[in-house]
Amino acid sequence: MTARRMAGVLAAVLALGVASAAAQDRGKTKAEGRVVNEQGEPLAEAIVAAMMEGFDKPFQQAKTNKRGEWTMENLAEGKWKFYFGGVEGLEEKAVDVAVGGSGTVKVPEVKLGKPVDHNAFVNSELQRAAEMMQTRQPSEARKIYEGLLVKYPDVPADFQGQLHGAVAQTYAAENNATQALVHLKQAVALDPSNTDIQLVYGEMLIQSGDRAGGEKILLAMDIGGVKDPLPYMNVIIGMINEQKSEEALALLGKLMTKFPNETSLYYYRGRANLAAKNLPEARADLEKFVAGAPPDARELDDAKKILEQLKDVK
Predict the structure, then answer these.
(1) Which of 39, 223, 225, 250 has an alpha carbon within 20 to 30 A of 31's alpha carbon?
(2) Is it the case that residue 2 has pLDDT exceeding 70?
(3) Vertex 176, ends 170 and 182: CA angle to 5°?
(4) Phi-psi region for residue 20, left (φ > 0), alpha (ψ -120 to 50) or beta?
(5) CATH of domain 158-309
(6) What are the pLDDT digits (tens) for 303-314?
(7) CATH of domain 3-112
(8) What does the pLDDT read at residue 313?
(9) Model-level pTM?
(10) Distance of CA 251 to the CA centre of its chain
(11) Per-domain residue ranges for the chain?
(12) What distance in Å separates the CA atoms of residue 11 and residue 199, rounded to the nearest whole number?
């Protein structure tokens, strides 16, 4: 629940915008609790509003007494959200509560404090997590990311997706591909337009043995939005090994248009042309690769061996 949404609920309470009994059935359950400040002192006249899941207006409102206590009756069985606020200078809060069919629900004590700059706090936590990753403490970084997911369950889905992607990164740093994939799957579901996360997810699926699943993700992506061609190398190698050289050449064409300065693509296109028996084209590509590749390129020795075999090709 964002601060704006919470404020809107409390504003509706102040305007007596509560749901009528006709709109929402009365139940038999009572709820009670207490509201205090940061020092644990009771807060009188704090507003409490109860909204049942599936409704857009509070069903009932109450105010705390001088001991900070409040009660509500006639609540129906189901999932409820209680909103607390209306105290000048203090930030509102919301609490999820499961209400039974009868009896009394004891809502945990709610503490209202001074407003927090949540954006500044989140940015500070993300910076702290990044420092943990740089100092090779992925488990500590993961605690920070998971803490943000718990503290802010109602943030936009794309940000939740990015946090799950960050959690996946911490597991990958520990070589725990299984857990990394769990969070990458969640990240893609929450933020399907994030090509960076999709790229990592597809690549990790292939590396973990699910080549079909990884290729499906990578080949469905718009190459125009891809920032790194390297995850596609395993896809291309698989195509070449399966004698799908034309498909490999088509994919390489798209990648080379997007990444004209990526020297390694000439090596893979050379291999694809070799598989397709386009020998002059294979030789030309491999020569371009050898001429521009860094001395430590892992494909360099193989490219030179192939060129030696193709030295008489015109």
Answers:
(1) 39
(2) no
(3) 80
(4) beta
(5) 1.25.40.10
(6) 999 999 988 777
(7) 2.60.40.10
(8) 75
(9) 0.63
(10) 28
(11) 3-112, 158-309
(12) 44
